[in-house]
Give the backbone structure.
Amino acid sequence: MKRIIASFLLVILAFIVQTCIFPLLPFLAVYPNLMVILVFSFGFIRGSAWGMGYGLIAGLLMDLSSGGPLGFHTLIFIWMG
């Protein structure tokens, strides 16, 4: 249970860093997509079922923060996990 909560908090932290902190750094013209790295890591380390679950959470967060169609990031992140 602690591992699930820690992983969920890591997804939230990566989302906050990616959407709030990276755009404020003037010397970073291009910055990494932390959510992609995190979902890929979860899928690689814990298996595809866990990766798809975290891909769902990360994709929904990215869809809600972007102006694109709902489900675009979710579908890509689930497929990647």
